[in-house]
TrEMBL record:
This is ATP-dependent RNA helicase DeaD. Coiled coil: none annotated. A motif (Q motif) lies at residues 2-30. One of its GO terms (molecular function) is RNA helicase activity. SMART domains: DEXDc, HELICc. It comes from the Bacteria. Residues 544-582 have a biased composition (Basic and acidic residues). SUPFAM superfamilies: P-loop containing nucleoside triphosphate hydrolases (SSF52540). Residues 34-205 form the Helicase ATP-binding domain. Residues 216-378 form the Helicase C-terminal domain. Belongs to the DEAD box helicase family. Residues 536-608 are annotated as: Disordered. GO terms for cellular component: cytosol.
Length: 608
């Protein structure tokens, strides 16, 4: 490991580096700086975000330009205004002892004449976003015909954002013999093409593993029972009212199902997978780009190349089969200099995969708890309060206010605030007050798995075990019976579990919340001409034969004590009908206890 001094930087720069507190060069700096200082060459450098790329091109550029000339000699293109300002700021700090240096930022959304004036004063280095740069060139407000060094920073992002033509156009105004330095986190084909087109035999450096994850993405996992996946997903969404996310599922079917369920539960969600027509996919992507969809549920294949910035969360509803796929998924967030969170909903049987992913992406996951109902109520309430606080008054409302004001003449501000927020809070509260804890302790035994395993259903379990009078002789095995029950009861993939098929009868479990529904459904149900009878079993899933029907198999009717799925129906209904319009046709009679969550999730449809 060398020092900055050994890399050949001059005293002015070394002095600034000391001030900045950089002790030693980062890897990309160590590799790039000597090359750029000591030769006139084009360069392609691949390194992840946060590895110090700015200084890797910034120091050499500062060392090489002539501060005594007022000619623009260096041009740095970067994808966003934020990055542009960030780079400008860094360059000014790096060059603070370079007397006469003038670094100017050019970006949209700010006065073009002010920027032109600054350039005119003599900018040796211009840091620009492509759009504004092109604009300034066409208005002849900048002259880049004498630049010697051009940098394409975050080249992959610039291409993702559709700046290819602008870049081509801009570079056509620069001298042939300049040097081009391209910095990028990844090397998609587009970037390679750009490199080929604009660069002359570039030297190449790569830092780190190409699968390594970017540093501005944090990785979290949530350990739940497999059948609680969907509830966990909704809680995560509810706990992040401004979420703008891609939810990854493994199969097209799950993708469609999860999206349908979310829509039905009132979330602004959409599905993206290969069974949709191109037109349908375009429409979904359009809505997503416009932020009209907060949760895009997608397969890996369909989501390839999603170039949407600002994605706040990637949610791995299921882990991918290939660990590398995880890198691609999580790379959908934390783009263009923003921070992102990649969440994994993981069951006990997959939790070891987290360790393998950590090894490959070289980042640690944080184990987090699925938020409980009251936390979510609080988050939602504060989010609402914030929204109200920041709302601009629409004066169309004025004409209606007289009668409303009259109504509240006697109400104090405190009182009014209380009442106003109670409208929302009661809804959240009613829905969530009885919600269960979805978290599974890491050391606990795995309670899932379809067939045998269930010896750990203690009396304190949240699930109910049933006896059903069909079995192998009716053509069922555990998978077929599980599918049959799921279809008949219109339950989700993980809602029927511990299915155990015997010759002429079987057992299965559902959540306690589903008990009434299951029992009601099978009170008068015929399958292939025969009455199918379902009763609550005393068998806890341990498979001891004699406990199957107790004395005569009375249905132990403790319904009053069980947690009932319709607890939530209370005051939470009003919103759902408004959202029917975007319903994906899912008509399932859902029973899971969390399904009311969307009732208020829908209230936060618009993100900005
Ligand atoms: P990248 O462009 O690769 O994403 P940046 O150039 O923005 O990374 O650098 C990331 C952060 O690291 C910045 O805050 C920068 O000041 C700091 N930094 C850069 N080089 C060094 C170094 N050699 N030692 C310590 N900090 C550094
Ligand atoms: Mg950078």
């Amino acid at each position: 490991m060398s020092t900055f001094q050994e890399l050949g930087l001059n005293d002015d720069l070394l002095h600034a580096i000391t001030d900045l507190g950089f002790e030693k060069p980062s890897e990309v700096q160590e590799k790039a700086i000597p090359i750029l200082l000591n030769s006139e060459t084009d360069l392609v450098a691949l390194a992840q975000t946060g590895t110090g790329k700015t200084a890797a091109f910034g120091f050499p550029m500062l060392a090489k330009i002539d501060v005594n000339s007022r000619t623009t000699q260096g041009l740095i293109l970067s994808p966003t205004r934020e990055l542009c300002l960030q780079i400008t700021n860094e360059m000014k700090q790096y060059g603070k002892y370079c007397k006469g240096l003038n670094v100017v930022a050019i970006y949209g959304g700010s006065s073009i004449t002010d920027q032109a004036r600054e350039v005119k004063r003599g900018a040796q280095i211009i840091v620009a976003t492509p759009g504004r740069m092109k604009d300034m060139i066409s208005r002849r407000l900048v002259d880049i015909s004498k630049i010697q060094y051009s940098v394409l920073d975050e080249a992959d992002e610039m291409l993702n954002m559709g700046f290819k033509e602008d870049i081509t156009d801009i570079l056509s105004h620069t001298p042939e013999d300049k040097n081009t330095w391209l910095f990028s986190a990844t090397m998609p084909r587009e970037v390679a093409r750009i490199a080929k087109k604009f660069m002359d035999n570039p030297q190449e450096i790569t830092v780190g593993n190409k699968n390594e994850s970017t540093s501005n993405v944090t990785h979290e996992y949530y350990l739940v029972n497999s059948r609680d996946r969907y509830q966990a997903l909704k809680r995560l969404a509810d706990a992040n009212p401004d979420i703008f996310s891609v939810v990854f599922c493994r199969t097209k079917r799950d993708t469609q199902k999860v999206a349908e369920n979310l829509i039905e539960d009132g979330y602004s969600a959409g599905a993206l997978h290969g069974d949709l027509s191109q037109n349908q996919r375009d429409l979904v992507m359009q809505s997503f780009r416009k932020n009209q969809i907060q949760m895009l549920v997608a397969t890996d294949v369909a989501a390839r190349g999603i170039d949407v910035d600002d994605i706040t969360h990637v949610i791995n509803y299921q882990l991918p089969d290939e660990i590398e796929t995880y890198t691609h998924r999580s790379g959908r967030t934390g783009r263009a200099g923003k921070n992102g969170i990649s969440m994994v909903i993981v069951s006990k049987s997959e939790v070891r995969k987290i360790k393998s992913i950590e090894r490959i992406i070289k980042r640690e996951f944080e184990k987090k708890e699925v938020p409980d109902g009251m936390e979510i109520c609080e988050v939602q309430l504060m989010s609402l309060a914030n929204k109200i606080h920041n709302t601009e008054v629409n004066h169309e409302i004025d004409k209606y206010l007289t009668s409303i004001n009259e109504m509240f003449e006697e109400t104090s501000k405190e009182e009014l605030i209380k009442k106003f927020f109670s409208v929302e809070f009661t809804r959240f509260y009613n829905y969530y007050q009885k919600s269960k804890n979805l978290n599974v302790a890491e050391g606990s035994r795995d309670r899932e798995g379809g067939r045998e395993g269930g010896r750990d259903f203690g009396g304190n379990s949240n699930s109910t075990r049933y006896f059903i009078n069909v079995g192998e002789k009716d053509g069922f095995d555990w998978m077929k019976l599980k599918d049959f029950l799921k279809d008949q009861l219109q339950l989700g993939r993980d809602d029927v579990f511990k299915v155990e098929v015997k010759e002429s009868f079987s057992f299965f479990n559902t959540e306690n919340e589903t008990k009434d529904k299951v029992l009601a459904f099978f009170t008068d149900f015929k399958h292939e001409g025969r009455f199918v009878n379902v009763e609550v079993s005393e068998n806890r899933g341990g498979g001891r034969r004699n406990d199957r029907r107790g004395g005569g198999g009375r249905r132990d009717d403790k319904r009053g004590g069980g947690r009932r799925s319709d607890d939530r129906k209370g005051g939470s209904g009003s919103r759902s009908d408004r959202r029917r319009s975007n319903e994906g046709g899912g008509s399932s009679r859902r029973s899971d206890s969390d399904s009311g969550g969307g009732k208020f999730a829908g209230a936060r449809r618009s993100r900005r």
